[in-house]
């Protein structure tokens, strides 16, 4: 009788539970939304340049719209960048540690980051709620409702917190082979 290797022995890739994969898919979805917001900001900037330079007219809403779009894209894209591990990080210490110690360090750092993101979510929600409740608008001629732009902060940090919880679960419970590489950008040269 032949022995059939277990999935971990066969080198199969690790698949986190469905709920974690779904949360990661939400991060990817908002990453796409953030990319379209950047594209919209570029198009609005081109429109503003055309209106000012070619038509010789003044612009009213374009500069403000670009600012709100870029800030919104930055905040809504936090979770996607976390999923890609694209944030700036210092990985000298984790690279020197064995896998069990690296796992403990990842759990501690992720837990501290979760605390920071939760605090930003809380205060972002307060700011959004005040703008909504008091019907704040921008001071420009456009009078843009500020609750729309302020919503990006609690939503973005909520999504970031969600992705951090996925990362915490993986750091704490995933098999050692599923942990992210310390230096994924290094070449073999």
Question: What is the approximate shape?
Answer: elongated
Structural class: mainly alpha
Mean pLDDT: 88
Number of helices: 7
Description:
Helix 2 packs parallel to helix 7 (152-173). 23% of the residues are buried. Helices cover 67% and strands 0% of the residues. It has helices at residues 18-54, 62-76, 78-84, 92-96, 99-133, 146-150, 152-173. It contains seven helices and no strands. The chain is elongated and about 65 Å long. It is mainly α and 189 residues long.
Write out key terms for the chains shown.
single chain; 189 residues; mainly alpha; 7 helices; 67% helix; 0% strand
Please describe the topology of this protein.
Elements: H1 18-54, H2 62-76, H3 78-84, H4 92-96, H5 99-133, H6 146-150, H7 152-173
Helix pairs in contact: 1-2, 1-3, 1-7, 2-7, 3-7, 5-7
């Amino acid at each position: 009788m032949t022995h059939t290797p277990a999935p971990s022995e066969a080198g199969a890739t690790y698949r986190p539970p469905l709920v974690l994969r779904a949360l990661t898919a939400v991060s990817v979805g908002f990453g796409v939304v953030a990319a379209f917001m950047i594209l919209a900001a570029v198009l609005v900037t081109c429109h503003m340049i055309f209106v000012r330079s070619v038509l010789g007219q003044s612009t009213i809403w374009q500069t403000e719209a670009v600012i709100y779009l870029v800030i919104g894209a930055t905040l809504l894209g936090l979770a996607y960048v976390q999923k890609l591990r694209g944030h700036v990080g210092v990985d000298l210490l984790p690279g020197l540690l064995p896998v069990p110690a690296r796992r403990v360090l990842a759990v501690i750092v992720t837990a501290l980051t979760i605390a920071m993101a939760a605090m930003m979510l809380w205060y972002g929600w307060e700011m959004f709620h005040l703008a909504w409740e008091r019907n704040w608008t921008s001071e420009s001629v456009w009078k843009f409702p500020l609750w729309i732009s302020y919503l990006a902060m609690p939503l973005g940090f909520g999504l970031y917190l969600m992705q951090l919880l996925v990362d915490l679960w993986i750091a704490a419970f995933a098999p050692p082979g599923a942990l992210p590489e310390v230096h994924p950008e290094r070449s073999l040269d």
